[in-house]
Amino acid sequence: MSAILSIRDLRKTYEGGFEALKGASLEIEEGEILALLGPNGAGKTTLISTVCGITTPTSGSVTVAGHDILQEFRAARRLIGLVPQEINLEPFETVWNAVRFSRGLFGKPKNDALLEEILKKLSLWDKRKSQIKELSGGMKRRVLIAKALSHEPRVLFLDEPTAGVDVELRKDMWEVVRELKADGVTIILTTHYIEEAEAIADRIGVITKGQILLVQEKADLMAQMGRKQLEVQLTSPITEVPEALAAHGLELGADGRSLIYSYDTRGERTGITALLNDVAAAGLVLSDVVTRQSSLEDIFVGLVAGEES
């Protein structure tokens, strides 16, 4: 795959001296879903706003399919669709007119067949004559996506697309994103929902304090940085980890009825056999043993905490 979006050493300093982006660099491949994770104030929205031409960068460069966002603004912007975090729609406008208007803003010729196809894919066709104010929050977000897709962009930014949407609708939105990818649309997703990135992204990017810490294949990230935990559950509670088990680096569970052992899945030896032998030798009786794989959330929290320390 080739990069459709190239961000190089992007910096943005606002009046007053606040530096929102500090040399961010990122290559996004055509046809992929990239999830950009970061805490509040990390620079996610500033990055999106800069690429979309809403904010002017202080320095650095951005190209979309080879078009520089400053030197060839119109050509670059025509290739981008943006679904903002805030729902800002004309309440008395119909769904159909709202989407047709968005297409016209980009100078695209009338194509009602295409708009019909978009609305049907987003389960909005039956609502096309409804006024925006009559729709649920989830349906309004679908209208935002339809508007963003109306001019046939090749790159789609989704800024917190499922914020405030219930779990069932969120999963429906994930399916919509997968279908968009199948249609060849490149998607950059910012989200606070770690499970969202874990469910649909091809690659994960982590940004904090205006800097991109890493961008990596999701599966590789989980394999390289993920750890497993072994929870040894005991029949009787204890008040502290026995001295004989100190070498294993165990944590005592809150109720005193479990011992938590963390190990690297990439290691040649996990140390589990030795641990269980030592637990038995210490006179502790096991009731159960449970393993847990680190989630993307664990990895993300660890990365951000390490950067801030």
TrEMBL record:
It comes from the Bacteria. Residues 5-234 form the ABC transporter domain. Keywords: ATP-binding, Nucleotide-binding, Transport. CDD domains: ABC_DR_subfamily_A. It comes from Phaeobacter gallaeciensis. This is Multidrug ABC transporter ATP-binding protein. InterPro entries: AAA+_ATPase, ABC_transporter-like_ATP-bd, ABC_transporter-like_CS, ABC_transporter_ATP-binding, P-loop_NTPase. The keyword Nucleotide-binding applies. GO terms for molecular function: ATP binding; ATP hydrolysis activity. Gene3D superfamilies: P-loop containing nucleotide triphosphate hydrolases. The keyword Hydrolase does not apply. Pfam families: ABC_tran.
